Amino acid sequence: MAAPEGYDDAARTAALAWIAQIDAGQYIQSYDSGCDAFHRKVTQDKWVLVLKAFRPEYGSVISRKEISQVYQENGVNGLDGECMVITYDTSFSRIKDGYEQVVLKLENGQWRGAAYAAGTKRGSAAVNNESAPQVETEVESTVVQHPPQQ
User: Fold this and answer.
1) What is the pLDDT of residues 39-63, one digit of tens each?
2) Lateral strand order in the sheet of 110-120
């Protein structure tokens, strides 16, 4: 099902604002920007701990290109209500072949963060042949290590 008119741009703007907070290390602010369902599933301390453990390892963002945006009228991953899943092809200074995925939930007329996942694409490795950490901070589970499905 296609998203209602205006949803795509509003969700895109909200996703980029949310991950800009994560990029800047503003983890508490990014937690505060999350939706109510996210707050019920993940504590602020856990969110900050997970992001501090993994996100700095990627380094700064070199490029970020949206590769898909999927509207889910009836929710996603145990999250009820209207959701948008946006996936990015992201190059970080220490992970050239990376990805990010943001799940947003429509709450009181605003798109708010519900999940963030990042890491290397399947079959890729970090610079210097090290294994890159994978992090998925979702509503259902705070940390699951796996690459995205391709």
Assistant:
1) 999 999 999 999 999 899 999 999 9
2) 61-72, 83-92, 98-107, 110-120, 135-137
What does the alpha-carbon distance between residue 114 and residue 59 come to, in Å, rounded to a whole number?
A: 23
* Span 62-116, pLDDT tens digits: 999 999 999 999 998 788 999 999 999 999 999 999 999 999 999 999 999 999 9
- d(C-alpha 27, C-alpha 80), whole Å: 24
Q: Give the HSE-up count for residue 4: Cα atoms under 13 Å, Cβ half-sphere.
A: 6
List the one residue out of 118, 114, 116, 107 whose CA is nearest residue 39. Answer: 114
